[in-house]
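ASSEMBLY PREDICTION REQUEST
Request ID: AP-0331
Submitted by: J.K., bench scientist
Number of chains: two
Total residues: 719
Priority: normal
Notes: Please return the full assembly, not individual chains.
Input sequences:
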Amino acid sequence: MSRMLVAMSGGVDSSVAAALAVEAGHDVTGVTLKLWGGESDSGCCSVSDVEDARRVAHQLGIDHHVFNFGEEFNDHVVDPFVDGWASGATPNPCVECNRHIKFDLLLRRADLLGFETIATGHHASLVEVDGERRLARGADAAKDQSYVLHMLDAHQRGRLELPVGHMVKDEVRAEAARLGLGTASKPDSQDVCFIHSDGGKAKFLGDRIPLRAGRVVDTDGAELGTVDNIQLVTIGQRKGLDLSGGASRRYVVDTDLTTDTVTVGPREALLRGSQAVAAWHWVVDPDGVGTDLSAQISAHGSPRAVAAIDETSVRWATPEPRVAPGQAVVAYDGDTVVGWGSAA
Amino acid sequence: MTTAYLDHAATTPMRAEAIAAMVEVMSGQAGNPSGSHAAARAAMRRLDEARSSFAEVVGAHPNEIVFTGGGSEADNLAVRGVLARRGGTAVCSAVEHHAVLEPVEAAGGAVLPVTADGVVDLVAAAEILAATNPSVVSVMLVNNETGLVQPLDELAAVMAETCPEAVLHTDAVQALRWLDVATRTGAAQLVSYAGHKFGGPAGVGALVVRDGIELAPQVLGGGQEQGRRSGTQNVAGIVGMAVAAELAAAERAASVARIAELRARLVGGLRSRLDGWTETGAGERVAGMVHLCLDGVTAEPLLLLLEQGGVLASAASSCSSGAMHPSHVLAAMGYDRDRASGSLRLSIGPDTTTEDIDRALEVVPAAVERIRGAR
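STATUS: Completed
Returned structure:
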């Protein structure tokens, strides 16, 4: 039993997380983070989400607060997101939000206010291995969010509870319905919370940086067409390229923002035996890593089999598509996160 | 643990006499004051009595009182009502409540700067008023964050020189408990009040509209309040507000004297126990308001730590989601974001005790030091 601060987004997962924490006997307080003041419809911090969270908190008989981390969210998540795309990288804002806001700022705020633990509605789990708490995949493979939590250090893992990590989404919704929570049938949030679906990423970035047209060439350098916004083109992308000629599927195999050139080619041209990584962190002693190694390279991607990892590269068991620079590469031993870095 | 409620500027407990008067109205014979039968006439009589007694407290003729659904509605009626009737533009001070700022901004109006002390800069005001020649000027009597009294009479003199045709509106929502509003609002042709700031109910307010001042109604319908605000009057609420206003006026001198002592105990005590803070602004300030800017502190965790220690206070204005936002009042006074984020408002009321103040003296320094230590 502890004094616990539960981050409540107004969605069903964190609503049930709070309910389960109350049921487990913790002294629970709910908090909703106000992160984004601009337009958004996909659900992390609009006024109606705050009200949904507060109604659930009242239903559970717990206190509810709103913390305004808008300035820090802008500095640590939104600005780097814009800068990343501007420089040809593929940033993951959820990862940066977890790193800087939820598990740094919020955890420090919890410390200041005397809360012993924090909880969120993430689908992931914390497992005891060799007397240490490790991050592992949640029970719902389709909803697993261990990828976006990979950066949690031992201190953070020790202070965190993930009450819905052992449930699949249908069970979460059923629990919410059983408790009569108003968020039971609320749709899952999609995409980036601070980007409005009208206009999407192109409008959001276009309002902030000058997007440029680029030329598209094949791997032999032959001109195939143009793209409107070269900064939005991601390695591995197939859709959204308006190309003349050639019936076979073509993928983006490279982008060059110095010459504003996108190179496309067949899937085979994307394949690499290994992926260069930067700033690799082992979560565990690398000598103790087992043999069931895999790596995930995007929030909803499937794991890829890994043959070996050193500090600068991840060697795939069989050739795999190139990873867009800036994407987190998260290594698992079985279901447990054992290391992470950033695609170089 | 008993709680020290030091947020009387946000809302203050209702007077028992006001509650009793409301209960009497609400539990008695129903009657719509606009009707013609005996029950309706009885309701109208209650309304008339309340109107007369409230008018006396605020220094107006009963016909000059327009009852509204609160202070924000009164502010909106004043600014928008004059603009809709006369056209032209509106000007207000930079430290107005949002209920004035928003209508003025929506009309494309201008804003009068304040000095670093937090009062309207009369020199700058003269220039802006001469340049814009507005049809309505709105400057509050008492600021709701700092408690600073604005120079209304001096502003009226500046207006006489620069824009003599303009109507002066003052938001006196924070003033009635502390100042003799009958004399202090004399320069204004439109004056807003809100019942819940002086012991009446929330959701009831009034706009004083001096004889001869025309404004276009903002709520259309049955033509109540002499056609200036339609909608069946909230008789019980209005009666409660009028009772509270009478009590506040009658007890004002003694209450202000007692609360000034509590204020001195609080400010003096903080001075001897805590470094790194200043009182916000300077000049005449109402007795119940203490506003501090604390170095190295943000208000959001501070208020929660104070609450844990049994002190309920507030910082800047809150938005509808409950998240805190930087104060436009402090920004107008030239405070940068960092200094403005350490603001704390402790507001004292008639039921505040010496024990409440001593609780704050124990809890505030400890909370501030805890936050400073964590940085």
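REVIEWER COMMENTS: The first strand of chain A starts at residue 3 and ends at 7.
SIGN-OFF: pending second reviewer
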